[in-house]
Every structure is written in structure tokens, then in C-alpha cells.
Amino acid sequence: MPPEADPLEPFRAEVERSLRAAVAALGVDGIEPKLARAPQGMADFAFAAHALAAKLRQAPPAIAQQLAQHAGSERVRAVPEGPYVNFRIDDAALTEAVLASALARGEHYGDLPKTGQRVIVEHTSANPTGPFHVGRARNPILGDALARIVRAAGHDVTTEYYVNDMGKQVITLTWGLQHLRPEDVPHAERDKPDHQLVARYRKASELLERDPVVAQTIQEMLQRYEGGEPSTAQQVKQTVETMLRGMNATLERMGIRIDQYAWESRYVFNGDVDRTLEKLKQSERCKEEDGAFYLDLEGLGVAGKSQKFFLTRKDGTTLYTTRDVAYHLDKFRRADRLVDVLGEDHKLVGQQLGIALGLVGETRKPDIVFYAFVNLPEGRMSTRSGRVVYIDDLMDEAEERARAEVTKRRPELGEEEKRAIARIVGLGALRFNIAGVQAEKAITFKWEEALDFEGASAPFAQYSHARAASILRKAREEGHAPGEAKLAGKLAQPNELALVRTIARLPSVVRQSAADTRVHPLAGYAIEVANAFNQFYRDSPVLQAEPEVRGARLALTLAAKHALRNSLGLLGVEAPESM
RNA sequence: GGGCACGUAGCCAAGCUCGGAUAUGGCACAGGCCUCCUAAGCCUGGGAUCAGGGGUUCGAAUCCCCUCGUGCCCGCCA
């Protein structure tokens, strides 16, 4: 029998079964007993007997006593403790199951069986008007981690970037590139297309507001573009491609690869948007005002002035949200489930989108992850105003600080090696700090916090991983191999068992995070593993232990290493073999 | 004015979806641990009206209502 993907699952099922039977034995029906996690170190699962007190007209502790007599099994003991029934899994049985699963699956420990479900994770989708800045840095970081997590949960994931190449912003940029010379704008220090181009976007935006002639020109250009004039379309395409080349270099450096790009203009020019519009117009909610069509959202929970969801301008051209409906219909043709990562400024749009999809007969809705912006102490970041911290600069700073640390701690290493470690650690700290916080919490950007290298940070977990790697490396050099899962009985120290129990939870954390489309539980989990490993490291010498114990501890070390590497990996954070 | 979020020690976060055991970590602070597998580590200590008020419940950080504060939105922009 191959080891379980989730070593905890058979035990959980067993406990649930036995608890259900015990509840039935007391003559209670109609209550589905719910298992809970007991406080750390107390038990593996718990049941609070209060829930049955009213029905049985008995005190919870008495009920717990009786339940415990009927519940439990050979491998799981049921112990009444006050008003609770605590279930404790047999240490050796659990350890063996965890080691078997983690060692057999290795780099894939944590991954769940394939579901065949196709999921498109749309993330980043930043307007191609300038370099990525920290204000929206959560988008690629959360999106990429989410894609990895959903993939680990067994689904077939494709990531997609929706390129907003319609509308005034890209036209303004294109105009700027055609009419402003590089000498007329501030010089960019960075030799990347996005940095090279953004100054002219800024200048063009400024002229657009100040100069009516420029505004008129841009307006006309926009009309030609939306009217489908090939030469303008060609120019815009070229502009956007150039900008994206620069932006992609940033993503690549962050370790983020996007599977495919969906261009907004494509949906306009291939007729998808018009077809979607026609369908929407058939809705009774669709009304006209001054030549412009809108959906009347009254009574659908959208309040006040937002009740009119405009689909077209009065000249008949479509609006962003309308095109987004067409895009989502297309995505639903290609996938079973959609995940979108959007800034919180899109909350209303998300609601409108959901309603519109329903009106044209699409019963599914995208799972939208909204994230709050990363603001500067002095306010919101903005490409147009230039009040920004660029991700490129943040990465530079992260690597530089990490290199200073490595140099201090590992002076014996070669320059090349130091640089490699600094890259992994610096970037890891950056991604971890953003991925580790609940998406909807607003963040005020501070350098020290963004690049924290100790405590609950990526380097903390990476360090534990490097320690584990170091032990395994030395063992190999001395000719010792990790033992079989059968040696589980040799692991009996409290901190060994605590580590086993922590490792056991990775598949559960993956399942839950994927279902909830939440990333930060993985970060918390990685810290827990590191913590448990550090305590094991302190209390249980591995290499000097007698052969069988050494084999068992090496196996546990390897299992912990997998859990660390894989949980970090799901966040897009690399785990170095040495640091 | 209306809507959606968020508010947990000096600071930053977890727990809230699914109510249950002394509210969990980190930073900072005070003290301790490197003849022993990497001290980016470990141990000990102090520090919390879980924004405030009301309600539901045997039981509320968790659910409901109100108030306050913060972020975001309310455009024939994207």
C-alpha cells in the first residue's frame, strides 16, 4: 500500500468514526459531533462535550467520561479531561505514517492527489504604464503563491496575466513615446525598458491634464484605436510589448513565471465583447440613458450611486468592466474554477462582474482574493506622481542587506557563493513578509519590516532548512543513511514527537489554504516547522546517537527538511542547502 | 452621505469562515546559553479593557446590532 498523501487523514477518519459511534451509543441522534484541535501538546483531536449537555441533561464532564469509554481505537486513545474528550494518536503509529509519507513523497510531500479540475489563477494584470511598484507588490506575490498552493492541492493550474491594453493610459504612453524625446524627461538610472519609458508616461499624463491640444490629440488617437485602426493598434501593441518586457524581467527576478497573457484588446477586436454586450442587453435590467447602456442593479445589494453599472459610453464603445465580463466568460470556457487576485479598489467591480455573469447564464463565480494596498507613510503610491518605491529597488536593497549578513556570518565563503545565498535569502525575506500577512490587511511600507531577517521570517525557516541539510550532508559523508519509517519507535523524545506532529499537518494546511484561497497560513506553518525543528536540534543529537536512533533521527531530519522546503516553496521562497 | 474591509501588548502579526480548555508568535526590553550536528538559533522574564458599547449563548477575540478610528470604493476611467 503506498503511503498516504496526508498521513493524518486515516487517523482523523478513525477518530470521527469512533466519536460518532460513541455519541450514538449514548442515545443522542441528530447531532454531528465536530472535532476540534486541542491546545498544543494536549492531544491530536478534541471534542467538547458541552454540545451534548442540553440534550442529555448531564454535566459535560460526565458526558466526556462516558464518551471516552466508547470512543477511541487501537491506535487512538480517547481520554476524558474535564468537559473534553481528548484523542491521542499512538506516537509510534503516527510517526511511522508521517515518516513513510514524507520520505516517500519527498519534494512532493504536501501535494494532494490530482483532481483533474482546471483552475485559472489570474494575477498581477498590472497596467503596462511603468515598473512594478511596492503598492501593488502583493498581487504577483500572493497570486504566484496561490497558484502554487492550488496546484499542490491537486488541481491543474494555469496562471494568466490580463493585459490592459485598452483605454487612455496606454494611449497616453504611446503618444508620449512618439512625441517626447528621452532628453526632455528625467533620466532613468535603470537600463530596463519599463524604467526607460515611464518618465515619458508621466510627462505625457501631465500634458494631458494641462494642455487641451494634447488632450484633444490623445482623445482622437483613442477613438482611432478603439475603432480598430490597424496602424494605431500596431503602435500600441509595440508600446505595451516593450513595457511588458521590462516588467517581466522584474517578475522573473522575483521567481515568478506567468503561463499566459490575455490581451484585453483581443476580446474587443475579435467580437467577444460585442457578443457579450448583446447578451447583457437582453437582460431586463439593461436600460439606456442618453445613448449609453447600463445595468440597473437595484435590489441586488449594490447600494446608492453604484446601482447603475454602465456597460457602454454614449458613443457605443464598451467600458472596462464590460470587457472584463467577456474575458471571464472566456476563462470559464477554458477552466472549471477561476481565481482572481485583485486590489481592494476592485471590490465593486468584482460584485458587478459576478452579477453580470449571472445575467448571461454563467452560474459559476470567480473566487476573488482582494488585497489591501501597501502604502507609504506619506500616502498612497502612484506611478503617475512618481511617489513610489519600485520592486526592482526593493530587491536590490534586499540582496544587498542579505549579502552584508552573509559576509558577517560566513566570511569563509567565496564571493560567488555569498552572492547566491544573499539572493535566496533577500528575496525570500521579501516575498515571505508579504505572503505571510492576511491579504486584506493594509500595510504601511517600512524598509526594516519588509526586510526582516530574524524572528518569524523566511531566513528563520531557511536557516533551519540549512541546518537540516548540513546534518544530512555530514551523515552522508560519514556513510550514514536515514533509516526506514519502521524505526519510528526510536523517536520518543517530546521534541521529536512534537516535530512529527508538525510535519504531519502540511497536507492539511495545503488543502485548507487552497480551499480558502489564502496564502498566509503556509507562512505561519513554515515558521512552526522551523521552530519545532530548532527544538529537536537542540535536544536530540543526530550524528552521535547510537546507530538505530541515528537512523531514525536522520529520517526525521529529512522529513522536516522536506516539510520546510515544500512549505516555503509554496510561497515561492527557495530553501538554501547552506547559509 | 452610502457600501465593502480592517482594528488583538510600545510596534508587527496569528487565531475569527466552523463559538469551547490559562488568547499564539515575532520585534523591542531585562537576564541566561557557543570545548557538542551552522547563535539568521535556543531558554527564562515582564508586557493584552482582543477599539468601545449592547445583544445572542451554558460559554464570545470568534456570531448579530450600534458607535468610533483607519483603508478602499461609490467615473459614460482602467
Model description:
It is a single chain. The protein is an alpha/beta fold and 579 residues long. The protein has 3 domains: 9-89, Arginyl tRNA synthetase N-terminal domain (Gyrase A, domain 2, 2-Layer Sandwich); 123-375, HUPs (Rossmann fold, 3-Layer(aba) Sandwich); 391-570, Isoleucyl-tRNA Synthetase, Domain 1 (Orthogonal Bundle), CATH 1.10.730. It is built from 21 helices and 13 strands. Helix 11 packs across helix 12. The longest helix is centred in the middle third of the chain and has 25 residues, at 230-254. It is globular, with a radius of gyration of 28 Å. The model has no long low-confidence stretch (mean pLDDT 94). It binds one RNA strand of 78 nucleotides through helix 2, helix 6, strand 8, helix 12 and helix 13.
> Could you give me the name of the CATH homologous superfamily of the largest domain?
HUPs
Fraction of residues in helices? Answer: 40-55%
**Helix-strand makeup class:** alpha/beta
Unreliable residue runs: none
- Helix run count: 21
CATH architecture of the largest domain: 3-Layer(aba) Sandwich
- The CATH class of the largest domain, by name, is Alpha Beta
Indicate the proportion of strand residues.
5-15%
Large-scale geometry: globular
Classify the fold: give the CATH topology of the largest domain: Rossmann fold
Cα distance spanning the termini: 38 Å
**Largest sheet properties:** 5 strands, parallel
Strand arrangement in the largest pleated sheet? 6-5-4-10-11
- Computed CA radius of gyration, to the nearest angstrom: 28 Å
Number of strands: 13
Quick check: average pLDDT? 94
How many domains, in number, for the residues? Answer: 3
